[in-house]
Amino acid sequence: MSEQHPIISVVGSSGAGTSTVKHTFDQIFRREGIKAVSIEGDAFHKFDRASMKAELQRRYDAGDRTFSHFSFEANELSELEKVFASYGATGTGRTRHYVHDDEEAERYGVPPGRFTEWEDFDKGSDILLYEGLHGAVRTQDIRIADHADLKIGVVPVINLEWIQKVHRDKASRGYTAEAVTDVILRRMHAYVHCICPQFSETDINFQRVPVVDTSNPFIARWIPTAGESLVVIRFKNPRGIDFPYLVQMIRDSWMSRANSIVVPGDKLDLAMQLILTPMILRLVDQSKRLKRASS
Ligand SMILES: Nc1ncnc2c1ncn2[C@@H]1O[C@H](COP(=O)(O)OP(=O)(O)OP(=O)(O)O)[C@@H](O)[C@H]1O
Ligand SMILES: O=C(CO)[C@H](O)[C@H](O)COP(=O)(O)O
After folding, report:
1. For residue 84, how far is its CA from the centre of ligand 2 (angstroms)?
2. d(CA 87, CA 92)
3. Ligand 1 contact, 224 CB (< 6 A)
4. pLDDT (average), residues 164-176
5. Three-state DSSP class for 4?
């Protein structure tokens, strides 16, 4: 926990929708006049695309069938932990971008599959927002989760996550459905061992559940829309959450457990704004008070 320099971590698998959720955070930051710096989790991959391919082959030849981008060892997690620690202590740190496609290549001036140079965060920010695969990892050696003040899980049920991944990778990253299916299969071991445990560390999980048939996610012709889904919102610690207010403000929502509410898919953005805005304001107000007291 950092307090003077708060960190929010949005965690989800590839295709879960963390970039989409980041957009909601950006809107809240803009509306509330909060200066944020951000990290895309893929920036902390250990290998560029060509080196990852070589590393995968090397491990495969040695009998390792479990290695993937989801694996802890495929990412610079000690470096990420250091950046979280440094931001928490002094508001400083650095990041870079992993360039996925031609559009990003154009924006960053680096070919697809490569990293940009490391760059320091802008000075004087109020908050750090991480969005990616490993923002709530806690193992014996790596304690990223301990540095984040608010941890959010973005976890569609798995058929929907796969549909989102297949469609996004085909539409904007130029992969075939078969190639994406192979990647999903290869990542399954690390999905279970490295990704899922983080959703017990997160403070709030947003789980999108389709209400249309997704039995064969690999042939789905479109992503179920917001109107064709519900979102289960689960609070790790429900104390202090004003459930009657939320249920009253979000039409057609209901409590499904003492720590969970369900909202219609097209109310996700509203639900996030109602739930997250006061939490973000509390973090920023507290950090400003501490900064004033220590200056
Ligand atoms: N709530 C939603 N309703 C409808 N579609 C969604 C929703 N959230 C995400 N999607 C769609 O799912 C796909 C993947 O979303 P997004 O790019 O945000 O995933 P991601 O978690 O950032 O993936 P990666 O980490 O691999 O970049 C996109 O096509 C996006 O439009
Ligand atoms: O979204 C991802 C992980 O979150 C990508 O799969 C990862 O960044 C590697 O990209 P690529 O396989 O296109 O080089």
Report:
1. 22
2. 5
3. no
4. 92
5. coil
